[in-house]
């Protein structure tokens, strides 16, 4: 796919944008930005586990929403804003340690909506969660 970004984007730009947010608090790390994808990971540790020792499903959704929202925000026209309309997530396999890594890619980049697919995998490369987010693209005020 061709480059989808309409703004300067890099791992450092994304990292700096999330200082002092839930992303930083949960230990998420941006890893790579390609022409049509963003990759980030979250640790499976005491900050992110639920009482049964598994990565909390909500944390998987935070990672997915972060990736999809960043994708939309950096691919919409200058001055426009991207806001979430809907997100779904199917939890396929639990993770008890290590990292869960997510990659987002656009499914649809339109004038007023965008749809992004996010696949999360454990350290063995197994899918732990698949998610899809729909974003509204708002025109400048």
Automatic annotation (TrEMBL):
Is Hydrolase a UniProt keyword of this protein? yes
Record's keyword annotation contains Protein biosynthesis: no
Residues forming the Thioesterase domain are: 52-129
Q: Which UniProt keywords apply?
A: Hydrolase
A family per Pfam: 4HBT
Recorded hits in SUPFAM superfamilies, A to Z, give:
Thioesterase/thiol ester dehydrase-isomerase (SSF54637)
Which InterPro entries does UniProt cross-reference here? Answer: HotDog_dom_sf (IPR029069), PAAI_dom (IPR003736), Thioestr_dom (IPR006683)
Which NCBIfam families does the UniProt record give?
Answer: unchar_dom_1
Similarity comment: Belongs to the thioesterase PaaI family.
Q: Which PANTHER family match?
A: 1,4-DIHYDROXY-2-NAPHTHOYL-COA THIOESTERASE 1
Protein name per the record: Hotdog fold thioesterase
Source species, please?
Hydrogenophaga luteola
| Organism phylogeny | Bacteria, Pseudomonadati, Pseudomonadota, Betaproteobacteria, Burkholderiales
């Amino acid at each position: 796919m061709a480059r989808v970004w309409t703004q300067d984007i890099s791992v450092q730009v994304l990292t700096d944008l999330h200082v002092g947010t839930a992303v930083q608090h949960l230990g998420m790390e941006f890893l790579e930005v390609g022409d049509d994808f963003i990759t980030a990971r979250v640790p499976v540790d005491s900050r992110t586990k639920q009482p049964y020792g598994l990565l909390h499903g909500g944390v998987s959704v935070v990672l997915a929403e972060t990736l999809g929202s960043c994708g939309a925000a950096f691919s919409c026209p200058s001055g426009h804003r991207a806001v979430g309309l809907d997100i779904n997530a199917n939890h396929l396999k639990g993770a008890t340690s290590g990292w869960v890594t997510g990659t987002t890619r656009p499914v649809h980049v339109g004038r007023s909506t965008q749809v992004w697919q996010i696949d999360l995998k454990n350290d063995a490369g197994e899918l732990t969660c698949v998610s899809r987010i729909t974003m509204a693209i708002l025109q400048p005020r």
